[in-house]
Amino acid sequence: MLSIKNLTASINGTPVLKGIDLEIKAGEIHAIMGPNGSGKSTLGKVLVGHPAYEVTGGEVLYEGRNLFELAADERARAGIFMGFQHPIEVPGVSNAAFLRLAYNKKAEAEGRDELDPLEFDDFIHEKIKLVAMKEEFLDRSLNEGFSGGEKKRNEILQMAVLEPKLAILDELDSGLDIDALRVLGDAVNKLQRPDRALLIITHFPRILETIQPQFVHVLSGGRILKSAGKELATELEDRGYDWVLEEAAAGGAR
Amino acid sequence: MTTMVAGPNLLADLLSGPRPTEWASLREAAELRLAGRELPATREEDWKYTDLKALAGLAFGPAPKATVDISSHLLPEMVGTRQVFVNGHHAPHASCASAVPAGVRYFPMSHASEACHALGSIGNGVAKGLFEDLNTARFQDGAVILVPKNLKVALPLHLLFITKAETPIAVFPRVLVLLERGAELELVEEHHGEGAYLSCPVVEVHVAEGAILRHERVQRESPEAYHLGTLKAEVGKGGQYHSRTLSFGARLSRQQPWVRLAEGAEASLDGLVLLDGAQVADTHSFLHHAEPQASSHQLHKCIVDGKARAIFNGQIRVAPGAQGTDAQQQSRNLLLSETARVDTKPQLEIYADDVKCSHGAAVGQLDPEELFYLQSRGMNADDARNLLTYGFAADVLTHIPVASLRRALRQLVMARTQATSLGDLG
After folding, report:
1. C-alpha distances in angstroms, B145 versus A16, A75, B97?
2. Residues of B with CB below 8 A from A105's CB?
């Protein structure tokens, strides 16, 4: 589904990604872990077309197409979704109206029927159950005045509405208490299907107890230093990141 | 460089007709203050950015009575609580106040007794503005609203001022709102029109102790109109005055709200200004924290396109001894073209030491992070831009309590922000 080859990217002329290789197939769940400032979020944002980052080299194929030929909105309509660490607040636009608009833009692109406000009302009430969101949050302005946890809940609600093929979730657990994390983790698991893939970006292994990856990658200094199965997450929880960095440094010196 | 105002005859012309016989002493005093005055020029600090030169060259005749079709202006919550004024004259057949609860006095100024001493007395001790005096000298009619002690009026009242100018005319709408102790009222005041005209409305408000007035003000004058409005509100101890002024129309408009807060009173003075073409809209507000423990909140937003220009001057005065004052002011402006312009200036004068005052002003374009967020959900760049522009404006409309008015204004804002194609954003 996604094939990343020697990807490099920079922000304001400063290189952040220094050669990333990663293959993600349908049905897989990957976790990207690493210390703060390692470039984890950057990788996600580059994949969804954030304008602050400049792709300086390498290639990314999404379902066989050159990802960088697609604008950010085209990528979204083609099925790529990113749940952000810090979702933006948009005053004056109701959450429900925004969700319906986003749903209909995608439906239109896929040649499916758009939903009118009444039909969407039924549709969204099923979806908010999945993320245990209170109904009042639909009428409020998009993310405005939401707590960190409520914003994350809203990101997963958007994911449930858009049903992406490839979902990238950036630090989903930040701002969430244990119960909310379990609810949202379960929701993400329910949305995962054999024709979909997940890329979980996280500093802490905690979330990987609920959303269990088959592949864990450690990213540091803009490079993937180590890739292994989910047992790597447990090891990182026990031992931290330093040993991976040291191992990589030793390997580089050899 | 300053500009001299030509055509010193405008004021004299406007005052040349016969002085109406009612409220003679009030009018006489206003005329005395106007004697020898000229239209303000841009060399005066208060009018630095708002040039009345084009106005000075025009001649406005007296306003004839006229009939208009008001069906498009009716709102379901307020069909039985409306007073309609056409060209400044009360229109009894278009008005209907049958749903107004007993006890509320709600009638045209022309039916009011001159013993209504409050008229012209709000904000006494503060210098009267030139256009305020002009209104006092020549207002034809207007509305008087008196809500007795502790009466909470369930239905909103609707004041419609409509101008139909076949030739250039001048109208002077007048409103007096008196809320006695503990009374509550919601008031919608709208100005609409067609043709070239000058409208100088004056609204006087007195909110007594513990009373609450919510006041929605909609300015949708014709594109050729001049609208120079004055609002004066005195809010008694623990009273509340919440107003929202929405300016969409007029070639040139100016809003001058003045609010005085007594101890523990609360005020909000929000504004939304949507401009394009060569429109000019000026807001000069004055919030006077005269006594301790009062709070005020002001959010003023402008969206300016084309060669239009918005001016905001927000003055807040905290009087000596007004301890515990909490005053917050925000001026936020969105420029949609290279040639649009906003001049915004907070003006805080604080003479007490235990106060909480904050102000902020921002002028700019849409936030690229917000645009990207919407694009990452599948909206193309144009849709994202239009949705954010709509949201910027609709933010001010969110808390309008009259549902039909809120919907109508959202539709209007959608049309003006090219957001109509996005469908129902309610």
Report:
1. 66, 58, 12
2. 377-379, 383
